[in-house]
Amino acid sequence: MASGGFRSGFAVILGRPNVGKSTLLNRLVGRKLAVVSDKPQTTRNRIAGVVHRPGGQAVFLDTPGVQRPRDRLGGYLLKTTRAAMREVEALLLVVEANSPPGPGDRYLARELSGASAPVFLVVNKADLVPADVGAGVLTRYATLAAFRRTFLLSARDDADLEPLVSAVLDCLPEGPAYFPPDALTDQPERFVVAELVREQILHLTREEVPHATAVEVQEWKERPDGLIFIRAIVHVERPSQKGIIIGHGGSLIKQVGQVARQEIEALLGTRVFLELRVKVSPDWRDRPATLRSLGYH
Fold it and tell me: Edge-to-edge strand order for the sheet containing 90-96?
């Protein structure tokens, strides 16, 4: 990191669905903030992860993967990504080392070519290919735009992501910290808890069910003994999806709750009682009022 005064600013993480943007954000921050899954539309909101260093503070913004919208929710996700691209100090284009440039990558590169902020290329998933193959893929991607710097790495396995953090901090302007020293995100705990529940549903269900699911924390109470009671509603679009998520004799929703509760307790540092209920909210992805109630504006 360059010498001088304290540096601060925002860097947006962009890329196609499933290239590892959320994994990268979680590793940079050192805490799970964003849901990780191999399914499209895993990330539905702009999530800020705050990285603190003695000489600066970089706020990394994870965004939904760029793809053609199929419903109102998809339109919201694309709008969220485009909004995050404006008025930031750095942009990170994340691509895959095990996949050559495709139409989505080229589209994003064109979008970024006119950006006033420096653009960094992050070729992720280097652990999935031999070193020479990864280097060759990086070279092909590097021709798509005028990148400030390029990085070949594995967000999942690399022990040291400091070169990337340092490069971003070096291009940030001098200014005050945007967040307190202990802050890791701008999202409330309720949001992160709902995402941890949704993550387990993504892992345990297939086909259309994960995309038709949203999680809403309805009740949050801290009891005198320190235990936190959380009631969350799992919204689905059809009765058949409700049956799948509940599972035979309640087996699947119980499994979702058990694993999510462990993640939530690790996040909050205290014991948690997690109660999950499943509600049919027909066509919620195309209903503006429902989308607003779930936090999608």
Answer: 47-53, 56-62, 7-14, 90-96, 119-124, 149-152
Q: How far is CA 80 from CA 55, 75, 256, 273, in A?
A: 30, 9, 28, 33
Which residue, 236, 191, 203, 256, is CA-closest to 46? 191
172 within 8 A of 9, measured Cβ to Cβ: yes
pLDDT tens for 270-289 read: 999 999 999 999 888 888 77
Q: Are 7 and 169 in contact (CB under 8 A)?
A: yes
Confidence of residue 219 (pLDDT cuts 50, 70, 90): very high
Which residue do the tokens 């589209």 mark?
Answer: 107
The DSSP code sequence of 205-266 is --TTTTTT-EEEEEEEEE-TTS-EEEEEEEEESSHHHHHHHH-GGGHHHHHHHHHHHHHHHH
Residue 217 neighbours by CB distance under 10 Å: 18
Identity (one letter) of the amino acid at 255? Answer: Q
CA atoms of 18 and 20, how far apart (whole Å): 5
Measured distance CA(289)–CA(297) in Å, rounded: 9
Give the Cα separation of 268 and 12 in Å (integer).
26
Diameter of the chain by CA atoms? Answer: 62
Q: Where are the domains of the chain?
A: 7-170, 189-293
pTM score, whole prediction: 0.73
**Rounded to the nearest 5°, which phi and psi values hold at 23?**
-60, -40
Q: What strands lie across the sheet with 228-236, from one edge to the other?
A: 214-222, 228-236, 272-280
The third-level CATH classification (topology) of the domain covering 7-170 is: Rossmann fold (3.40.50)
Question: How is residue 93 written in tokens?
Answer: 């284009």
Mean pLDDT of 47-62: 92
In CATH terms, 189-293 corresponds, of 2.40.50.140, 3.40.1080.10, 3.30.300.20, 3.50.50.60, to 3.30.300.20
